[in-house]
Every structure is written in structure tokens, then in C-alpha cells.
């Protein structure tokens, strides 16, 4: 027996070594693998449950806060989107940045100015006192004259389109916080990098001191998402490129504690802009120089989405829906995204429907609602209340219905198609109304009278349904 | 030595515990991983062998049968398609359903009526006796009047286009079984959900009693594929939405034993339709209200693919090919799919060729053929007979050739592009004919005379080649 | 204690068996898994370091050499491209082949003739002495007359577009080696097979004797990449298809030692071609027979990219850039690729910039440069010299800058979009110049004077910057 022991020991050594090796690489690999499996399932929209949620991370900056939803949440993986909310204090500036995926921004509160640097487009805003000769700008008595690309006024209720790769900034020139909710379409064709939110900043950076509620892991994640790409460059190379003293570059690359939203020094930023009233009416005609300019430079990038007079769907007893799609805001065709704003009166219902060609990301701007979503597995994946500030995804083809609470319900929905099509079960444009009565009667084993009621009881409503007792005609 | 034992035991315990833990999670993970690897290889079209196949699963319904090919078969994973065959008994109705991927249907036998609910399109079929005032429909003496969207007559030989997300139904109003073969393009841009066949039914459901030949696993798979999304909704919510008594909804949601194809009660369904002859000639002009209507509402959704007079390729001694592509059937441009029907005379050959921009899914409608397919690995992946009722995939760029058997060969091929381009090696449009003789002579080390024969021996034929001894001119 | 031993032995046996089983399947699986993880990371462009590289593999043929870059290199996985360099000896022919992904070719040296077989397009080049009656070609006194599709003259500096699936060949009719650098866009929509380079040859094949420097693994990889798809076909089937004696087919399918580039027998290939001068001026108008013909048959497939007179960007002190994009070479719109050629004078700088919508594959054609690339992680992923013959990728949105060496720097860059847009940090079209001075001042905490310098110091330059001391005006 004792002779067996050395053999046993040998085997044990072999086992220990292989097991350990496997354990180490395996453990890591398995964890990664589990995550990958889960992520793959989510990205394929095999979803058991939708969970409306609030932002889970926040980045505190000098001039405001950036709040991010957990982009690894199943519902966001399914829709291939990432959502965040920026809160910019008055007289503060969200620093210039760009992203590999297109972004739609809804201005929930406040007002501000947004600028986008579109390469190849002319600087069409000029200050009056400048005299440009041979392209050089002369200053008078220390006052800078300037010229730059168009600056866009944005106000509460606006939807703003930011194409992939375009550097943009936002300045809060109002008296209250500017709150902006953004959704990036990571699965968009424009994004040739990974399915993950990335913002490349030209200035600013992470604050050294994080709020104590965050784990180091979360901090790491934020660092991955937001990056200053200007600082990494060799200072001499940059000095040469900009034809500036290296000390200036060094200051530009310096790390500071301001984060990604900064307070503007002095009494606020002066900027060349036409009178507001003019601007809202103007039809600016710039010189057209080439195809790209025609294509991009003069495209409208914002639309007021909260104008009752321009509602696309309106029911006196139930509310209204406004669309911003490729037909209204042409830039959306290039971005393949769109949005809708819904205002439901108390207890009104959004008809059960499915969106045929897009995922929808709902953000509750006011009030609350009871929502039911039925998934691709034929099971209810959500059946509960949603309330202000929450965000949830209704994947393509999932059937959903919403019933406003006692104080009404307002939402903005971001969609992953520039021409989304909704197919409702109820109302004037419903799938059932399009079918012969006998098809319905035989499908559901109901009488032809009942089938007729099924088709026509709501025939005067579209999408938005008032309470039953407010039954029309 | 004895002292070593406790140490050995400790180590063993450690090993046992870690091994077990790994074994459990690992086993599962590894199995999944093996499947994933295999699936990934198949999806990348690294295929060793193509295997023409019959459907492997069947769902029995009251009014017919749904037969499904195994969508996890390598060839279907490569092409990103799923295939099924519906057999609908006379006076039976395939219940309304929609799918996240576009579908082409070939009517192999029989005739029927197909309806599609396209949201936003008008109900353009009205029964004569109705008087619509303020939108309400009045009935006379208990007879329902009705209005609904266009109903399409389909007959043997038709190809029918069903866009993603459009609810549709099919009624067999003929005297024989209606047999319809469908291919869904799961990889299509329209599908933002997973690469898996899914049909969302508005009515009907799985029968409780399955045929005994099916494993529980297969039953589970079928359940995943076909889902009733109407039943999951809260009955009160639905009653409210439809403005119907809750008892009606309850009946509509009731599980029954009818499956997905149901027998129509009474002597058949009456439906508003123009005279058949009229319809086949009509050029219906509806009011155009908006872009979407123009885009979708009036598009033709079917084409007769078996008309010898409209053959695109015809060789007196060899047969004919009819195409349904984006140029002939405009809706296919939106779906990025197309089809072709081939009728080969006995022993005629389909020239060796590759399809430059699409996978092709062949379904044998009649006869048999000898098929050779050469894969991306330069090896023959198929070299054998195919017979009626079998389905096989020829992936993009794989070179294939078919020789009809003694009774001829008929097929329908579904393609994953709306403008598929075939590049044949032989005949009027062949790759070799486009090359200078000296390029061929030097490529193959043959004489210029032989190269000339290579180019011109078949110059009067295109795609379809008669037997050698029927050599033309 | 001794009693414990059998128990221990049992456990050990269990452990050994499970561990072995796991070891075997696991080892393989884990290796594959590690590779997959790494590949996934690379494909998502989570790149730590870019490494400019030379080709790592070569295939020796009778008439030249095919050199391939390692397509599994992270940078190529990220961009989804594969690169190779063909060197064709004078009077040698690169054999007809096609690929599932579109390809751009830059002619680095020499001249040649390229033919493409586009199915459905007419043979528009006819030899004078032929008399075509009923389509048959008569020969006079043993001299072959011929007709074939257009043959394209290509010369050093040309960029050539080869669409997916189009069979093409190239003949070096000059006196020096023809060197052609090709990039295939594997991620292109046109490619429905795997993300891997594949060339399907109609003739030729691997040489039996490989150079001794290659591992069997490398040889295997090459075999996977380049395949003869003609040889696998049944010889009788082919004889029947081509209506040729089976002995001819047998010779055509015969394996030989010539590889994929072959020496032309005799004193060179005669080919029908217009006078060169004519051709370079001609505007060929063929009969238009259908949409496809209009679409493909008459499209220009080459553009001279090295013409100083047609430079798109030119700075007297710094150099020039020529573009070949969808606006200039329409076929690129169908292929969604483009190219640019840059010629930088000694010590000139290419401004720091990011490409908004495409990956860029740089190939150094002459000279050297110092390159800095900053990645999506905010870190420098490359900061070193690149020299002639090296290839490197700048992924979408990564910010890069290049400074030419003392002998200047010339490159050709292949891009994965037909309309690539570059956003520079410096110069006339820069992101900073588009922003108000105060935005810059506040972003970087610099004075308004410094911000003004930042905007305007380089305002007269676009993309290409001369040395600082050659400061303009």
C-alpha cells in the first residue's frame, strides 16, 4: 500500500498543477464567458424582464453633473443604445466632445446655445466690427472680433440631432439648470468601433475626487467612457501644429479639477448671434459650394417637439403625440434615428401597438403611467408603473400599452429608425380594422357582431384613447 | 509517509471541491461554448458539407400543418434564413401574425386570399350596401357590411412578399390544400431582434397534445418560435382599449385546441373583393395622402413566377427561369430579398455559376437533379441528387451546377438580395467569354483553339444548357 | 488511516478521469476561447497599441510573388480589412479570381492591363478582322479573332476598384515589375461570408514546394485564403457544361507548379485595345440595354491618384493630397470604400485630425514619417516612425498626426467609407476654428488672445502644415 503513495502523490501533483492552471485561467475565462453569454442573450433581445430605471452613475463636474444609465442593463444591450442626462448650471459650458455614434438630445429644462464643428462648412456667423481682409481678423482696442459656425439656440422641448463624429459644445446662458437627456445609437452603421458609449473630449477631464458612493469599478467604467484625446498628444508636436508657444499647449493639456462641464469666467460668454426672433423665423441661405456643404452645412439640427399646434396625433379627450422623423428633420435620415413626444391626459391610454422597425427608448418627462409590455416569448416582460425620470426600452415588435396616471403622463421616446412605423391593435389605423370581419370572427371565435365592435368601437381614435366613459359619438 | 496523508487529503478536498464547482458550471458552460463555436463557424459559412433536407418538425393545427426546417442546420445558419411550409386545408384560415424579419412565400399548390394590415393605409375595399356616415357602419337586416384593406388573391406559382412587422393572414378558399413554402431573412437589416425565426400571433396558440414523435425539446423550440402576444395582456386593459366587455376579451384570450390554422365555421368566409378578372387587370389608384402611403399602401405584393410567357431566360431545348427582383416587384427593394423560379427540361443543365451578392435557398418543387456545389475551401461540399420537397442553400460565391434528372427539375430559389447577380462560367454572359482568348490560353495552359472553344462553344446559351448532342447551330 | 487510501484512490480516479476529460476538451476550448476573446476585443477596436508592419507571409508563384499582411493582427481585425501586395514580373499574368469582399488596389510601380468579367455586360472590344454573323467568330488562316469586355490600362499611381464577386485578371505588359497593394473591406455589406480574406481562383493553385521559412500552419492559412474552385468540379460535368472534350477539362483542372501568377508563353499576349492616347481621352458610349448595364457596365474603375494638377488639397510649402471617393469615382459608392494619396514635403506635418466615419489603412509608398495616434482609451497607441513599405491602421475617430521625415513622406490611405470625412484640429476647416473664441478660452483656461491664436494661426492651411518657420503671410 505504501508503495502506492508515491504514485498517488505524483498524480496529485499533476492534478494540482493542471487544476491550478485551469483554475486561474479558467476562473477568469469562465467569468468572462458567463458575462459574454449573458450579454449575447441580451443583445439578441432574449429578455425575461424590462426594468425601468434611473441613472446609476454620476460624474460631478465644476459646472454640472453627468448622470449615466447602466449601459450593460439587458434592455439597453438589446436596443444597442446608451442613455445619459446632463445637468448644466447657469453660465456653465459642456466642453467640446464627439462620439463615434449618433446622438439625439431632448432638452427637458432650461435653455442654452449649442455649437457643432462640421468640417468643410463655412464660418457663417461674423461679428460686426471685424474687417476681414485676406482672412486675418483685426481687433480694435483689445476687443476681439470673431467668426465661427452657426450657433443654435435650444430650449425646453427641443430635440437636437448630433451626428457621429461631430465635435459639439453646449452653453447654458439661461437662469435655470439646463437638463438634457441623450440617447446614443451604438448599433448604428455610423459606429465602426465597439457597441459601447464613448465620448472623446477635446478639453476637460475626470475630477480627481470622486463621490464616495462610487466603487473603483464604476470609476474605471466612467474613465473608459469619457476621454480627453487632446492631452495625450506630444506637446511639441501640438505646439508645432498650432503654431503656438509650447507653454500654451502645456496649459491646454494640463489636468484640472473642473471635469467635463465648466464654469464660465467673467460675466458670461459673448457670442455672435442674430436676434432671437429673427432666428426662429429665418430661412438662412448660405452659398452652396459643394455637395457636402449642401448635404450637411445647412441642415436643421433641432426641432421643437412640444408644440401643441404641430401635433401629429391629437385627440381632444386623450392627448397628443409629436413626431421628429426623417421627413420633418432631414438630418435624421442620415442618422437613422427619430423621436416622439407624447402628452397623455389623466387616465388616457396609449393603444396597444408594436413598432415594426425600431427599438423605442422611453424617458418619462412628467407624471406616471401603468405600462404593460409583452415580449417575443409571449410573456409579459413588464406590468407596472413608471414614473418621472425613469427610462425603459420597448424592443422592436414587442407589444406595449400605456395608461396615464391621475396626473397625466408625458414622455419622449427615442427610436432606432428615421422612419419608425407603429402598428396599433386598436383605432383608426389598427391591424384589426384592416381585416375583414369574418377573419376576426373566426380567429377569435367571436360573433360577427362582436368582431364588428372590435373593429369599429374605437374607429375614431388613433393611438391615443380617452377613458371608456368619454366614449366618442 | 503516513504524515503526508492528511496533507494529501486536504489537497484532495480542495481538488474535489474546485473540480466539482468547475465541473458543474464548466460542463454547462462548455456545452454552450461548443454550441456557440459550432454556430459561429456555421454563421461564418465555414461549411464542410451541405445537406439538402426535409422539414424536421411539424405543428398540427385544426385546419392544417406547419412544417419547419431545422434552423440550426449549418446551411441555414450560414445564410441567416429560416424556412417553413404551411399546408392549409380548404376553408381554413392561417391566423393573423407578424414577424421581425421579412418573408418571401411561394405558393406551391392551391389558391387562397391573403390580407396584410399595413398601418396608415386606407381600408380601400368596401361592401356595396354599407352607408358610411360619420364613419359608422350600418347593417341591414342583420347582414354585416364591412370595409377593410385590400385582399390579395394568390394562386399556385405566385411569390408573395411579406415585409417585417406586417400582420397578415391567409385563407384557403379553394377546393384543394394550399401549400406555401416560406423563407424568412433573419439577417436582414429590418430585424433588430435575434437571428432566429419568430412569429407573433394575434390569435391562436399551441395545441396541448403534440404528436408523439416530438421530443419535449422540440416542443419547447416550437413554443419559442410561435407566440400568441395577445393573450398575455391584462384583460381589463384590453377591454378598456377596445371598448369591449371584458367577457369578449376573455373569450378572445382563451386557450383552445385549434393551433395556428383554424377551420372556418359555416359555409366559408364572405369577403369584399372585385371580380377576379378585373383584379388581375386592374391598376388600382387610391388617393395619395402622404409619403408612407405612396411608399407602402399601393405596392404590389405578389408576382406570378410560373408564367412561361414572362420568362427572363428561355432556351427552347433546356427550359426557362423567371425572376422576381426589385426591378419587377418594387416592394422587394425595401425587403432586400428576391426569388427565381427555374424549370429545367429533362437532363438539361444549369450552368456552373456563383451568385455575387446573395445566398440562395433552393426548394425543389418538382422532379430531381444532380447538384454539385464547390465551397469557399475549394472542396466539393455537395455532389449528389436532390429531390422534390428538399431544400438546400448555396452560399454567396459558392460555385454550383445542377443537371436535371430524366423527368426534369423545377425549383424556386429565395435570395438574400433584391438585385442578385449571377456570374456563370459558361454561355453568353460567362466570365470566360468576357476574357481575351490569350488570358484563357495562358491561365489553363491550353491552345488558343481550345480557349476559343471554351469561350464560344456555348455562346448561344445563357444559364440553361441543353444536352450536348442537342448542340445548337 | 490505511483504510482511507482506497477511498482516496477512488476519488483520485474520479478526479483524474474528469480532469483529463476536461483537460482535453477544455484545453482546446480554452485556447479557442482565449483566441476568441482576443479577437472580439480587437474587432471592437479596444486596442492598446498599433504596430505598423510588413507582410508576414509570401506565396511564390512562377511569375511573381503574393505577400500578405497578418490579417489576425489587432489593427486589421479592428478595421475589418485584409491587405496584400502582388509583385508581377514582366510578361506575367495574375490569374482570374474573385472575392466576396470589395477590393481597392493601388499600383505602386509598373504598368499593366486589368480585365473584369461583369456578367450581363457586353463584349465591347472587338478585333478588326472578325466577321461576326449569327454570333460565331471566323478565323482567317489560323489567326484568332476575338471579342471581350473592356480591358483597362493601369499605371503607377492608379487606384483600381474591384467590386465583390467580379472575376478579374491582371497582365504585366511593361518592362518592370508591377507592384500592386490591395486592401479588401471584409466588413463590407457585400460580404455575406466570414470576416476573412478569401480569393476564389478559376485557374492556378498552390505550388507544392513552399519556401522553407514558412510553418505548416502558415501554409494551411494560405491554402484557406486562396482556392481554386474550378478544379473541384466533376470533369464530365464540366466537359458537358462547356461542350468540350473531357481531356481539355482534365488539362484545365490539372495541378501544376505555377502558383497564382504565371509566365505568359511566347512573346507576350496580344489583346484588342484602342490606342492608349485615345483611351485616356475617350468617353465610351455603349448601347444601354438595362438598368444593370447602366449601373455597372460603363462605370470607370480606375483613377490616377498621383496627379499634382488634380490635387484636392495643396499647400505650396507642405505638399498635396488627392482623393478618390464616391463623388469622383462613382463605382466607389457601390463599394463603400475610398482612398487618398498624400505627398508631404520634408518635415511637413499632416494636421492632427480624426476621420468621422471610416477606418483608414495607411501604406507608406515612399519616405518616412513620425506618427502619433491617440486611441479611444485616451492613450497614445502609437508614437514612432513609420517607413516605406509599412502598413498601419488608424481606426475611426482615433486622433492622429504625421510629420514627414527629411526626405518627405508619401502614403496611400484606403478607407472603409465612400464619403470619408476628416475633422482636423488645426487649419482652415478645423473644429476649433468653427468655435467661438470664448468657448475655446473657457475650455482650455487660456486668454482670449491665445484662443484667437489657436483659431487663426494656421487659418491659411488645410490638413497639410509647413514647418513653423515657413509660416505663411
What would you note in describing this structure?
The structure is a homotrimer of 473-residue chains. Chain A is α+β, with helices and mostly antiparallel strands and 473 residues long. Among the domains of chain A are: 57-120 and 147-285 and 292-298, Jelly Rolls (Sandwich), CATH 2.60.120; 307-421, Jelly Rolls (Sandwich). Chain A is 23% helix and 32% strand. Chain A contains ten helices and 26 strands. Chain A has helices at residues 4-43, 74-79, 216-225, 235-242, 246-253, 276-281, 291-297, 331-335, 437-444, 448-456; strands spanning 57-61, 64-68, 81-88, 92-98, 103-109, 111-117, 125-126, 147-148, 151-155, 158-162, 167-171, 178-185, 199-201, 226-228, 261-263, 302-304, 313-315, 319-324, 338-344, 349-355, 360-374, 380-387, 391-394, 399-415, 422-424, 464-465. In chain A, strands 17, 18, 19, 20, 21, 22, 23, 24, 25 and 26 form a ten-stranded antiparallel beta sheet that branches. Chain A has a seven-stranded antiparallel beta sheet with strand order 1-2-3-12-5-10-16. In chain A, strand 13, helix 3 and strand 14 form a beta-alpha-beta unit. In chain A, helix 9 crosses helix 10 (448-456). Chain A starts with a helix and ends in an 8-residue tail after the last strand. In chain A, 53% of the residues are buried. Mean pLDDT of chain A is 85; it is low at 130-142 and 277-292. At the A-B interface, helix 1, strand 20, strand 24, strand 25 and helix 9 of A face helix 1, strand 4, strand 6, strand 11 and helix 4 of B.
